[in-house]
């Protein structure tokens, strides 16, 4: 029986049940060989597709059939709350927002790239890196590259395709983008070029996720991303290849390089320096800035830079950068500051604000789907604590002190939820839930027996 057949059995069970049903109620109507873990996974996929609705959390979780024609829940984008550029960034933006006649022509400055020393020079501050890491990391446990991106694939596909296309002037709404990507239904009255732009993002994002285990920001991979994003939008001879002619950037005094050999050399240099950068967020911003600045391709350079910037995030299982909550004009001006001033501060501040907002939205999506983001993020830490609790046979006040002590090591924003998860784990411990803890059933039983002993006088 195929997976789709299995899911059809689940849908039939929900139809027979009529109203909202718990997982045990659903399992009762399924064949005995349907493993609980598999049914959970298939239900999550049906929820993501919009065929099933999920409500409640943990033991109160209930599932029901979605109403016919109800689309996957999509939130319209929200602007970042109280976001303001810093004074230095505002100064840079004021310069590039002057009338074009007041801005002197400038050419590509290779020295800016030459001077950057991977792991010694940094665009992001240490405080920025610590903040982005705290918000963007989803687990400390070692997992295969691309695991998190696959977990949120549909959401990533919609958000990144929509926002990256929106920054290029695409007029598809978020709902229209979803329908095009998931149902293949284009919006009436829209230009065919807009649909192609979005569908090309779909192919590029799929490539990123599927190849996450073997992906690096190499020259070849950057060219491949350009090919996927530009197919059908530029002449075939220019898709995935460094251009052999000059280009100009609209509304900018910047004049890019026009020598093919030098363009290829510089793009290889960008890739080599990027691959040498160890910190994923610094690597991401470096690619975003320098791939766009070089303008190595006949068109679709900024889109290529935005997808390339996600390589280190996808491969390291961080929240992706979807470029949500960014004003199109702010983004365009920030890129002008890169082109004309070699000043990355405005785009850095947009990156930081958008990324933090994106982390919040992915957490909100996870909560809407019933995923405990804190539980997933600190899985490894919780297992370490539980292993110690069992092996040391902790009980009573000693047990609670250990749990509270463990929670103190967790960032303040997640501490209370982490402690609740630990307490629930202890309550629900059973021989069937020892997998991954590194303890034997005998150790567990000795710990369990300790719980019933009277406290020492």
Word description of this protein:
The structure is a single chain. With 457 residues, the protein is mainly alpha-helical. The chain folds into three domains: 3-65, Arc Repressor Mutant, subunit A (Orthogonal Bundle); 87-368, Fido-like domain (Fic-like fold), CATH 1.10.3290.10; 373-451. 58% of the residues lie in helices and 3% in strands. It is built from 22 helices and four strands. It has helices spanning 3-17, 23-28, 36-49, 87-96, 110-115, 126-136, 147-151, 153-166, 174-183, 192-210, 219-230, 260-276, 280-294, 301-308, 311-315, 328-341, 345-368, 373-377, 379-391, 396-408, 412-428, 441-451; strands spanning 52-55, 62-65, 106-107, 254-255. The strands form two sheets. The chain has a two-stranded antiparallel sheet. β1 (52-55) and β2 form a beta hairpin. α6 (126-136) packs parallel to α17 (345-368). The chain is globular.
């Amino acid at each position: 029986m195929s997976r789709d057949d299995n899911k059809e059995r689940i849908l039939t069970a929900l139809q027979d049940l009529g109203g909202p049903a718990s997982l045990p109620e659903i399992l009762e109507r399924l064949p005995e060989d349907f493993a609980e873990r598999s049914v959970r996974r298939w239900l999550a996929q049906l929820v993501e597709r919009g065929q099933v609705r999920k409500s409640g959390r943990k033991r109160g979780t209930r599932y029901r059939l979605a109403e016919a024609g109800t689309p996957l829940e999509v939130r319209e984008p929200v602007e970042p709350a109280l976001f303001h550029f810093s004074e230095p960034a505002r100064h840079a933006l004021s310069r590039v927002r002057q009338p074009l006649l007041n801005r002197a022509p400038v050419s590509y400055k290779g020295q800016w790239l030459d001077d950057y020393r991977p792991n010694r020079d940094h665009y992001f501050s240490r405080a920025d890196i610590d903040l982005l890491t705290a918000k963007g990391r989803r687990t400390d446990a070692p997992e295969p590259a691309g695991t998190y991106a696959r977990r949120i694939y549909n959401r990533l596909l919609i958000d990144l395709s929509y926002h990256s296309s929106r920054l290029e002037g695409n007029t598809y709404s978020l709902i229209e983008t979803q329908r095009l990507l998931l149902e293949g239904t284009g919006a009436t009255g829209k230009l065919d070029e807009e649909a192609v732009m979005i569908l090309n993002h779909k192919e590029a994002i799929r490539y990123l996720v599927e190849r996450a285990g073997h992906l690096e920001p190499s020259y070849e991979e950057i060219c491949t991303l350009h090919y996927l994003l530009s197919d059908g939008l530029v002449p075939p001879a220019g898709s995935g290849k460094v251009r052999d002619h000059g280009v100009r950037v609209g509304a900018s005094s910047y004049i890019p390089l026009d020598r093919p050999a030098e363009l290829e050399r510089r793009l290889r240099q960008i890739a080599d320096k990027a691959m040498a950068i160890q910190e994923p967020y610094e690597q991401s911003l470096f690619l975003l800035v320098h791939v766009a600045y070089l303008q190595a391709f006949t068109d679709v350079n900024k889109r290529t830079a935005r997808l390339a910037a996600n390589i280190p995030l996808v491969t390291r299982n961080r929240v992706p950068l979807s470029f949500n909550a960014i004003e199109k004009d702010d983004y365009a001006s920030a890129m002008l500051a890169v082109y004309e001033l070699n000043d990355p501060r405005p785009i850095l501040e947009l990156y930081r604000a958008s990324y933090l907002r994106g982390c919040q939205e992915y957490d909100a999506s996870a909560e809407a789907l019933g995923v405990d983001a804190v539980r997933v993020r600190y899985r490894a830490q919780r297992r370490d604590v539980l292993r110690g609790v069992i092996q040391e046979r902790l009980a009573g006040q000693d047990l609670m002190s250990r749990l509270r002590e463990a929670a103190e090591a967790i960032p303040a924003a997640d501490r209370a939820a982490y402690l609740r998860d630990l307490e629930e784990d202890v309550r629900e411990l059973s021989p069937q839930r020892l997998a991954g803890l590194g303890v034997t059933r005998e150790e567990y039983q000795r710990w369990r027996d300790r719980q019933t002993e009277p406290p020492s006088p």
